[in-house]
Structure formats: C-alpha cells, structure tokens
Amino acid sequence: MSKKKILIVDDSKTIRQQVNFTLTKGGFDVVEAEDGKLGIEALGQHADIAMVISDVNMPNMGGIEMIEALKQAGTHPSLPIIMLTTEGGAALIERAKGAGVKGWLVKPFKPEQLVAAVTKLTA
Amino acid sequence: MTEYHKKLIELFNSSANDFFLSTGVTDVALVSGELPKEAVERGQLFSSSLGFASAKVKGVVVITTQSAVIDATNPQREYIPVFSDADRADWVGEMANQIVGNLKRFLAKYKVDFSLSTPTVICGKDLAVANVAKSQLYVVEFAVVGKKVKLCYSAEFSVPVDFDVSVSAEPEQVAGGDGLFF
User: Fold this and answer.
1) Nearest CB partner across the interface for A12, out of B93, B108, B116
2) Domains of chain B
3) Displacement of CA B49 from its chain's centroid (Å)
4) Does the beta-carbon distance from B177 to A106 stay under 8 Å?
5) Which of A58, A90, B8, B137 is geometrically suited to a Cys-Cys bond with A35, CB 3.0 to 4.6 A?
6) Minimal Cα distance from B22: which residue of A?
7) pTM as predicted
C-alpha cells in the first residue's frame, strides 16, 4: 500500500524537518512548504496530498489565510487540515474552525500526538 | 523598579523559562534581573527579534545566544549530529517565536492580546542590541546548559496591564504541547 502524503507548511525549516522526521518514522511521506502561498502551490503540484499541517504566522501568506483561500477556491473541500502553532487563543481557533480546520496543536508538539492525529484524520 | 514592572518582567522571564524547559534541557537558570541598558556580547552569536502588537501593546523580544545553547535546545539534536549556522539561524528564530507565544498565553489571562510578527535573525560577532523604542528595555540573562542567553524585552502598553483581573475564569488559551480536535 502506498504511503499517505502529508504537506507541512511552516516558515521554520527546523519545524518542517522535525515534522518530516516524525511523520516519516510514522510511515508517511512528507512534502514541505515555507509559507501559505507555497503551500497552495504544493497542493496544486501534488494531487495525492492527504492532509495539511500548517503554522499560523508566516511571511507572504499565513496559515489561516491559506486555508480561507482554499475554502474560497473550493478545490479541496474535504482535505483535513490541522494547525501547528505557538498561538492558542480562542478567537483565532474559532476563525480556523470556521475555515474548516480539524485540529489545533500548540508548539512544542508531542511526536506521538502528531502521528496519532495524522493517522486518525487520514484513515 | 515598581511592583507592576516586576510582575511584567516575571511574565517575560516565565515565557523564556518555560520555553527552555519545554525543549527538554533541565540546566536552566535566571542569572540576573534587570541589567544596564547596553546588551553587548562577544564572539560568534545568533540573535533573533520578534515584534508583537495590538491596540493594547507594542513590543519586541530579542534573544541573543551562542551555538551551544541553540544546539542543546534544537528538537532535531537527536538525529542531526552537527548543525550548520543556517540550522542555528533558523532555530533561534523559532525560539523567539515560541517564547513570545508563551508570553501571549500568559498575557491573555489578563485580557491582553496581540499579533506576532515573523522573526528576524542576525548572526555575527560582537552583536549589540540598541534600544530605539520609546519604552524601557529590560535585559535579563539566563544560563542554559551553562552558557549565556541574553533576552531583551521592550513593551509599551496603551493601558497598564490589570493584574487584578481574575484568572479563575475558564481558560481561553491552549497550552504549549496540548491540542484540540474538532
């Protein structure tokens, strides 16, 4: 069975690599993007992306802006997306929920929690 | 220093302290309280600054430290034997991001919210932090894995933080390391 492909969108290379390592160990393939604009491009280039993990605060285009743009475009209506961020405020979480986000993890993340979330949401 | 300013400094210091401990290092200590305004270090250093702002507050946090601290706190240290300076520059930016993220959660208890900028990183020898803000610059030092970390905090509040606001209300913030699923 081919591995499920996960897109990580974060301007920190350290975080991208950490997520990549964690999910690769967990049996997934990983694609990386540095900001929301490049995340949208990656989704256009990889039709088999099964899930997105995204930071909130990034240059060029933030995570929630990316998700709202995807929602407006209607191109990935059932793609599961979770946020991985330092932010934890209720108002921002509500805005993300409204855009269709399925989960919210606050950094630093627990590897086993991330793998469990990805496994569940891509099942 | 007034009690109010001491409380603010405590929040900043707790933000940094909690971050260092969250990386798994246990050798973390606040070395000193407020230092003179000049914050000059010597040797090859990495520095990251991150601003934050809202209608209620404008501020910046600057972290300046050396390779040993950056490498000791980097979450990839278990599987990357040697870090490049590019790796270090990236991680020190994320360090500032997570420290200010902690500060945001602490201040939220007192009904102060703000947006974070993205971090700016500089690397080089003999870095100095100049205070060009109107507000006071607080400089503190931590010792992490026996090496110095200098943190500069500056924040200007349009209305002083009301530390008497009850913190027993239902928490509105998700803590670091936790998650929610909908």
Assistant:
1) B93
2) 3-157 (3.40.1550.10)
3) 9
4) yes
5) A58
6) A108
7) 0.89
